[in-house]
Write a structure and sequence with these properties.
Helices cover 37% and strands 20% of the residues. Strands 1-4-3-2-5-6 form a 6-stranded parallel beta sheet, with helices on both faces. A 3-stranded antiparallel beta sheet has the order 7-8-9, covered by helices on one side. The protein is globular and about 55 Å long. It folds into 2 domains: 169 residues, HUPs (Rossmann fold); 95 residues, 2-Layer Sandwich (Pantoate--beta-alanine Ligase, Chain: A,domain 2). The protein has 278 residues and is an alpha/beta fold. Bound molecules: pantoate. The site of pantoate (PAF) has 10 residues, from strand 2 and helix 6.
């Protein structure tokens, strides 16, 4: 497994081989959700590259950039065992050299939901993803459905800027009790970890109510909100039921594919989850 630490080394490695190239961008502290993306890339491509870079640009001041969990030694061992061909580990100085002032910014779809609650977040995500795609030059890039808005924002950027890479959405990987895997789950105390299962229960309740015929968007949102509110350790930041493509909030009824998404805080930990209603 090659370790590549500069954009030039990354580009050189890509050009030194041939055949389809799959790419999994990560911020490290890998879990089974990341490894599912890696396995899919390995199955679908001749070579696979994984990047590990905790991107300061997508964290606002006061967010968890400094304490974001990191374990490079363990990550590299997991990737070697998985059969990854190369790991791209750029430095902060290489990604954001002195005088850096060029950004990739997607319009309306990145201003809603997470964009509203974390101003500047998606500008950081799209800028780094564009830089990584430029250096890696993959045929396919793999993203999890857990970060549903991120996935849609990146798909929009790829289409709008003719990036010529296929974005492959991959299903959410969950713990046995339904909690979606996330590197941030490590922040949860045992009590918060137990309480966090309420998120999946609330979403599933909305799904079964929808499947029984309920189409009123405010009713479905309230059902999720009130189910989570019954858990004393949970603080709902938002519940959204939005058009699956534009992410515009549905005010009346669900008549087209929709994304039901939530952000819930447990202490200082902010957890996201979602499901698609079709
Ligand atoms: O989803 C993530 O881990 C990050 O947002 C990404 C796509 C690697 C960009 O930093």
């Amino acid at each position: 497994m090659q370790i590549l630490t500069t954009p030039a080394a990354m580009r050189h490695w890509r050009l030194s081989g041939s055949g389809s190239l799959g790419f999994v961008p990560t911020m490290g502290y890998l879990h089974d959700g990341h490894l599912a993306l890696v396995q899919r890339s390995i199955a679908e491509n001749l070579r696979t590259v994984v990047s590990i870079f905790v991107n300061p640009l997508q964290f606002a001041p006061g967010e968890d950039f400094e304490r974001y969990p990191r374990d490079e030694v363990r990550d590299l061992a997991l990737l070697r065992d998985a059969g990854v061909d190369a790991v791209y580990l750029p430095s902060g100085a290489d990604m954001y050299p002195e005088g850096f002032q060029t950004y990739a910014e997607v319009g309306a779809i990145s201003e809603r939901l997470e964009g509203e609650h974390r101003p500047g977040h998606f500008r950081g995500v799209t800028t780094i993803v564009l830089k990584l795609l430029n250096a890696v030059g993959p045929d396919r890039a793999y993203f999890g459905r857990k970060d549903a808005q991120q996935l849609r924002v990146i798909q929009r950027m790829v289409r709008d800027l003719d990036l010529g890479v296929e974005i492959v959405p991959c299903d959410i990987v969950r713990e046995r009790d339904g909690l979606a895997l996330s590197s941030r789950n490590v922040y949860l105390s045992p009590e918060e970890r137990a309480a966090a299962t309420v998120i999946h229960r609330a979403l599933e309740k909305a799904r079964s109510t929808f499947e029984l015929g309920e189409r009123r968007a405010p009713k479905l949102r309230t059902l999720v909100q009130s189910t989570i509110a019954r858990e004393p350790l949970a603080n709902v930041e938002y519940v959204s039921l939005a058009d699956d493509i534009t992410l515009e909030e549905l005010e009346t009824t669900v008549e087209r594919p929709a994304l039901l998404s939530v952000v819930v805080r447990f202490g200082h930990t902010r957890l996201l989850d979602n499901l698609e209603l079709r």
